[in-house]
Amino acid sequence: TYYLQDATIKVQEPPVRNSGFVGGLFLSRRKATGELLDPFDETFLYVGAQIKVLKHRFLILGTNDSTLKYMEGNDHQFTRSSFYSIIQKLQGYSTITEAIENGSLEAAFDGVSTDGLVNMEGIQSVFDSYGLIDNLNKDMISEHECLTLVRKAGSKGSVAIETIISEIKNPSNHFV
User: Fold this and answer.
1) pLDDT tens per residue, range 2-58
2) What is the structure's pLDDT at 16?
């Protein structure tokens, strides 16, 4: 749990039955630093991020809806939650622009879609097939960014393939 008001962090491990681990408090609420002894701030935390606390590496698997809404509402600060920053990043990859031109991107999405709709895992799979997924490199596409595409342009966990491709071709600013 990250607390914006005072930039503190608390880490709790959920109990898992029959695992040998009882769970509980790993780190009490305090200011914590990252690997380079830089203090954590909220921009270090996103779905797919790896953070190191007290020599232990943690992978952020998800977050709640209100946190995602906050990040999307402050997308100037949380660029992984900015729909058009992600679209602009995708436009910068020659593999994606070429795949749009020759129709192979649509075909790749068709392989992971249902009735022309694709979920976050499908988007991630297609971008990974083009070598674009990397949660640690901000110049690549992260798991959080795939989630943002679905949340901003879709509904009920999926988005129309046509919408994603048309926004990459010609951004409409409809999803600001």
Assistant:
1) 888 888 889 888 888 887 777 788 889 988 776 666 777 888 899 999 988 888 888
2) 80
Q: 38 Cβ partners below 8 Å, 6+ apart?
A: none
Tell how strand 117-119 and strand 158-160 pair up: antiparallel
> Is the sign of the CA dihedral 63, 2, 50, 24 positive or negative?
negative
C-alpha–C-alpha distance, residues 39 and 25, integer Å: 21
C-alpha dihedral (111, 152, 45, 92), degrees to nearest 10 = 60
Render pLDDT for 112-167 as a digit per residue (tens, 0 to 9). 998 999 999 999 999 999 999 999 999 999 999 999 999 999 988 999 999 999 99
Helices (H) and strands (E) in the chain, counts: 7, 7
Nearest of 65, 25, 26, 68 to residue 45 by alpha carbon: 68
* Strand (E) or helix (H) holding 140: none
Query: What residues does 134 pair with on adjacent strands?
Result: none
Asked if 24 and 15 count as a contact pair (C-beta separation under 8 A), the reply is: yes
Angle, to 10 degrees, between the axis of helix 83-91 and the axis of helix 161-169? Answer: 70
Residue 86 CA: distances (Å) to CA of 15, 79, 83, 149: 36, 8, 5, 8
